[in-house]
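Journal club prep, shared notes

We agreed each person brings one worked example of a sequence with its structure written out as tokens. Mine is Thaumatin family-domain-containing protein. I'm keeping it raw so we can talk through how to read the token line rather than staring at a rendered picture. Sequence first:
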Amino acid sequence: MLSLTLLLLLLVPAPALGRKITVTNRCPSTVWPALLTPSDIGSPIPSHPAGWELPSGDSTSFDVAPNWTAGRIWARTGCVNQGGQLRCLTGQCEPKSAGSLECSGGGEAPATLAEFTLAPNGQDNYDISLVDGFNVPMIILPTAPDCPKPDCPVNINAKCPGVLRTGLDQNGANLGCVSSCIRGFGQEKFGNRACCSGGYNDPALCAICGVDFYNVFKVHCPNAYAYAYDEKSGSALFTCPSSSSSDYEIVFCPGGSDYIGPKSASVEYDNDRAACANKVNSGPQQFAVGPSPTQGASIGDIKYTAGAGGGGPAPSAGKSVPPGGTSSAAEDNHNAEAAGRWRRETHGDYDTARRQAATFGDGRCDRAAAAGSGGGSECGEEGLRKAGKARVTQGLRG
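Then the structure, token by token:
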């Protein structure tokens, strides 16, 4: 009887064990990591806080479920306490509550993202995404010895052309580099070829004639997503057998690299443009993509102004349109506000919401609607919501 009981116990599958995630800061200064698990796709929510302070040289470890889905981790930089609220120059998120370090949703662009979809049976999927842009170098280190270790070890802020600089800087030095999608390149009549939206939401069509400023990101970080369907490169999405029960470490600034770029914009990639267009189109009109004038501002002892040739600070950092300023500054402000609103409301695919809002959220909504590619008075609110949820359900893509 005892032998039969033991046999039955052996036949019962053992419960799947959780995985350990370690976040390490090798940057020369403190960062504020953030953790996001979409709440509407059935993924277990980790018990660890969704945001915390991590001094240089420190690490934090926590457990996630073996089926953790669409999870992401990023670093917030240049953060200060302003009026009881944490305000960050990059990676800013909506706090869970007043004075909290935790995020209630996704972060503002630009931010380097570590993305995970784990599986108790099958294979883990993980990647580093620069789809929204770059703010800190990163590497993902599985504990399983035979699994790939994607990295983005180079400080792309030092390589960033003027048109992609954020205007978020510390004492005049650049802190972020947005993607061409976020900056507004690639808009055509029936979709955006840089954002892979609308008619270009297809791996075979998106980037069919290239992506503006693709090499800014892909040359220096070949093992990261440079646009939404960059898995076509064969070096963007990575897998590890779930049978290895691998844990993962995310290291910011591996090797002690820095994330602060110079005061002057790089000119190395000024001509790294897609083959099919030098201008973007929206309906029957054409308009050149250019920088947006902005005024300087400050948070505590951190100063940020317009980077050379770049756009202005994110609205979360208190951006305002200067008296007599051009409409492009106001449009950029509306872009980021719309993107933030949709990230909070979709609780799903924050990348898609951000790209869609950046494309249609700047006063071009009516032209977008006329072109049949979404828009309307609220820039296609229901469409954004559905697009966000659909993409997360399908799994990670950049």
